[in-house]
Write a structure and sequence with these properties.
Two copies of one chain form a homodimer.
Chain A (H helix, E strand, L loop, with lengths): L3 E11 L8 E17 L3 E8 L11 H13 L4 E7 L10 H16 L6 H16 L7 H6 L2 E7 L2 E6 L5 E8 L5 H6 L4 E3 H20 L2 H7 L6 H4 L6 H10 L4 E4 L6 E6 L1 H16 L5 E7 L6 E4 L1
Parallel strand pairs in A: 3-4
Antiparallel strand pairs in A: 1-2, 1-12, 2-4, 2-5, 5-6, 7-10, 7-11, 9-10
């Protein structure tokens, strides 16, 4: 009888240039660690949060809110303690809240003997995500629980598709250490867009999905464009245009805002190319006032998983 | 030395519910026949057009306009005569002008010894299409020359993708014998759409492309929706809502306007299902004032082709 598990809760990239609100993929180079422990006493407790001064209150922490959702649905004859070791900075744009929201739900489900399927777990986790983003979306949650690339066709009812991962695809991320409020990033988006731009965007998304199925890297390069969201959000990210043009010149397949920013991601064919892109990103920010972190990652086919038993 | 060829120029369905202006597929049950003949005398002539009182003037017939485009580019030391036997009614919404535009271009290219590739041929044919539709698009042309399902990611420069055809996919078409002016069908479209609807549409298009790759018929059914164009254009098509709901109830995977209408297409899994859908379509129109034609077709992987030498 397992009473405690430790979980790796990976970071994720949502939107992916042409797939605003529907597309996402899972990273493996960075993620939070969570320990979930079954207790005889009923109820939930977040007993420890390390990193970034987050709240231990169940109702103010996304991991708590999502944990409550699954716990109140399952009504088990036990309780759970949660320990959170955050490595993904909240507000960095690589799915920090999604990792916490899915972590507690995934862990509790394992300790309950796998009562729920992935769609149900995503629905519980969406309750936590809603606390952070004030909106119902699953484009960061889906790649955490399914791994790889996912397309969320619909959120109500949830309809999640797993798209193939071309084997040589690598991701480079730069996180400029500035704060972009998710609410600002949402509010700046227009309610309406031109039909012409929308056609460009869905042509690109359809093409990108085809490119993932066929491992057509040149087509990925042509499709990885965002004519809808990036023109609005890039103003919050200092040196975005410089980073993007330098990164594309140094051989990346595409470069765009990760989630609602401020992190910027680039996709490359092969690790060497991704490392070169990382150096390029660093060189743009090096002589500026902005601090930054960078890393290179593969696209994780595993998603969230238990790291010891 | 071949001096004369006869060509089958297939009908096509553009837009395909979720893929406005980018997606199309090729039919095999209906198409025009064209004869292209090399002449010693330089110049082009349309010497015969059978069906639908179309003009024999090079400048007033889409086949003439596109023929001029390839002819003036190639500047060959010979001329061509064109005979057109129209079976696809102009204005029916299943690519009548595209069939004519591509037919002459394809035929002349064969008699010139295959000087041009498919992208170049599509560019020439677009000149003809522009005469009929007053806009630059290739969503009917691409499936004629490539066969199957095509996605036109971009028209300038042309970027055309071939998407796999699930083997059990059948099409049913009903053509209500009414006139919808292409200009009306264009003018009724809004210049701007809501971001929310656009997200729904690109989620569906991405999912439909994934469904074609994975032969996932249930996903095709969930994805074949048009929240952008259909609400505006359906008013031109009498009994559209009735046909659609009856057809979906009788088991079709999806049902939407073909091109800019008035033809309505439905996709089904298997020929028996497609035949049942045809009967359903007929039953809706049977007791109305509207005359109609219906047919069932596979999706042609061949596209335009020579039928004798």
């Amino acid at each position: 009888m397992i009473n405690e598990i430790t979980i790796f809760c990976p970071a994720t990239v949502a939107n992916v240039a042409c797939g605003f609100d529907v597309l996402g993929f899972c990273l493996d180079a960075i993620g939070d660690t969570m320990i979930i422990r079954k207790t005889k006493v009923k109820g939930l407790k977040i007993i420890h949060v390390e990193g970034f001064n987050l709240s231990c209150s169940l109702y103010e922490n996304v991991a708590g809110v999502s944990a409550l959702a699954i716990y109140e649905h399952a009504k088990p004859n036990c309780g759970f303690e949660i320990e959170i070791y955050k490595h993904i900075k909240p507000g960095s744009g690589i799915g920090s809240s999604a990792a916490s929201a899915m972590g507690s739900v995934f862990g509790i489900n394992v300790l309950l003997g796998h009562l729920y399927n992935k769609i149900e777990l995503t629905n519980f986790a969406m309750k936590g995500e809603a606390l952070a983003s004030k909106s119902d979306h699953a484009d960061n949650l889906a790649p955490i629980i399914y791994g790889g690339f996912t397309l969320v066709r619909n959120t109500s009812p949830l309809d999640i598709l797993q798209i193939p991962i071309p084997k040589d695809l690598y991701v480079t991320i730069i996180h400029p250490q500035i704060e972009v409020k998710t609410s600002d990033a949402r509010n700046i988006l227009p309610d309406t867009i031109s039909l012409k731009d929308a056609i460009t965007q869905w042509g690109n998304l359809g093409s990108f999905i085809h490119a993932l199925h066929t491992s057509d890297y040149k087509l990925m390069q042509r499709s990885l464009n965002d004519v809808i969201i990036e023109p609005h959000r890039k103003q919050y990210i200092p040196y975005f245009d410089k980073v993007k043009s330098a990164v594309l010149e140094s051989g990346a397949l595409g470069c765009a805002i990760s989630g609602s920013g401020p992190s910027i991601f680039a996709l490359s064919k092969g690790k060497t190319a991704a490392k070169k892109v990382e150096k390029t990103m660093q060189s743009v920010y090096y002589n500026t006032e902005v601090s930054y972190d960078t890393f290179v990652s593969t696209i994780s086919s595993k998603g969230i998983h238990i790291i010891n038993l």
